[in-house]
Amino acid sequence: MISVQEGQAHILAQVTSVTPPELVPVAHALGRVLADDLQAPFDVPPADNSAVDGYAVSSADLPVSGAATLHVIADLPAGSVFDGAVKVGQAVRIMTGAPVPAGADTVVPQELVERVGDAIKIPTIAKGANVRLAGEDVRAGAVVIPSGSVLRPQELGLIASLGLLQVLVRQRVRVAILSTGDEVAEPGEPRKPGQIYDSNRFSLRGLVEEAGGVAADFGIVPDIKDELKAKLLEASRAAEIVLTSGGVSVGIYDLVKDVLGEIGGIDFWQVAMQPGRPLAVGRIGGSLFFGLPGNPVASMLTFILFVRPALWKLAGRRETFPVQFTAIAAEPMRKKAGRREFKRGILTFGSRGWEVRTTGPQGSGILTSMVAANCLIILEEPRGDVKAGETVLVEPFGALHA
Ligand code: AMP
Ligand code: MG
Question: DSSP letter at 86?
Answer without folding.
Answer: P
